[in-house]
Amino acid sequence: MVEAVECSQFLSQTPLYITSLSAIKDRLNAYQETISRYFSQYHIHYAMKANSALPLLQHLCQWGSSIEIVSVGELNRALTAGFHPTDIAFSGVGKTQKEIDKALEVEVGYIHAEHMEELWYLLDHTQDKSSCITIRLNPSAEVETHPYLKTGALDSKFGILFEHIQQGFQDKLKHLSPSEKHKYLIPLRGIHIHLGSQLQNPNVYEYVMEECRKLYDFLKSEGAVITHINLGGGLEVKETGVPHDHSDIKNYIEFLSKTFKKYFSEEITLHLEPGRSLVASSSILLTKVLYKKENDAQHKFIYVDAGMNDFPRPSLYHAKHAYVLIPSDLTQMSDKETTYSIVGPVCESGDVLHPKAQLKDSVCPGDSIIFLDVGAYCRSMASFYNLRPIPAEVFCYQGKLLSSLPAHYAAENE
Ligand SMILES: Cc1ncc(COP(=O)(O)O)c(C=O)c1O
């Protein structure tokens, strides 16, 4: 069951993602309620890349979330979902000029500059626009996470080092008078820092806030008035999913607020861009067992109908997701368990969905295996590799199925 929706009705439609919107609403509420206890001005920009499904975005928009995007494709989808341009934040380390121009044309709320050239282009073109420009600082902060998920370390491609910002201002603005500088820098109103995803230890914010304040002081001395600070790290989602009491969100915001307030006053608006921690534990992936094979006593395989193209996190990040076996015939279920590799149909040896799953010996074709906590960076990262279709996703809300198979999924798969 997902919410009050019986999943057995979908057994003929596997592989299939099933997402609980009510669970996502609970997580968003936990963020909103906790932040509002500590900050009078804040925005939560859901990072669309975690799951870009339209029904999910439409609901988030109705529930008061803002949104973070990284491409014009995501910009178009955010607008389709109903987000007002002023509620959109545009990140991305390789925005093309065409993408920037489009974002400026619709006057998205916030554009994060990741290169000095990009910053000057944005400032040259926002003098008569309402978009707020932010500089993404690379604070050179090491964090404990998967190397692919770090975004604020010295070896990271994201953001700009403080020394390079200083040097860039010196080179570009040295001929301007203080009042000319102030006028030119009016659209520059924010600082953005993102350290990475799956962050386990918030203590790093002590150092990061100090770096943020250093940049704030420098920008102030140059004539910019900074009123927005956008901070990430995404919270860690463990293999066991997110805590039911949302204590992860509460502890994180409490810590962040204490650290933030050491360096900044109430006048600054706080922005957060959570993706994974909002949606990860709200989806399951339903798969069907196709075959069973034992090469020898140590190498036993269960083949399911979802592959690395449908569910890329295990092969891409060696992520381990919890799983549940649903036998097709309960009367045949054995007591004994054996270790199997759960693998998919994709023509790659790396197409392993779980390398060491403990499953009942009686597991057989026709049984189902459900993977848990697959709401973030799973279906949104799915590909057509091997020319396999992208799996469908259905949504439940307030105990009901929203629609069986939304039309746009069918269209995407044709
Ligand atoms: C700028 C930015 N915002 C938000 C996110 C979302 O992070 P998470 O999904 O871990 O919350 C990322 C992830 O890399 C990011 O780079």
Query: How many strand elements?
Result: 17
Predict the CATH topology of the largest domain. TIM Barrel
Weakly predicted, low-confidence segments: 406-414
Bound molecules: pyridoxal-5'-phosphate
CATH class of the largest domain: Alpha Beta
Shape: elongated
What is the CATH architecture assignment of the largest domain?
Alpha-Beta Barrel
* Whole-number tally of structural domains: 2
- Tally the helices: what do you get? 12
What would you say this structure looks like, in words?
This protein has 12 helices and 17 strands. The chain is α/β, with parallel strands linked by helices and 414 residues long. The protein has 2 domains: 236 residues, TIM Barrel (Alpha-Beta Barrel), CATH 3.20.20; 133 residues, Lyase, Ornithine Decarboxylase, Chain A, domain 1, CATH 2.40.37. The strands form 2 sheets. Strands 1, 10, 11, 12, 13, 14, 15, 16 and 17 form a 9-stranded mixed sheet that branches. An 8-stranded parallel beta barrel has the order 2-3-4-5-6-7-8-9, surrounded by 4 helices. Helix 1 packs parallel to helix 9. The longest helix has 19 residues. The relative contact order is 0.16.
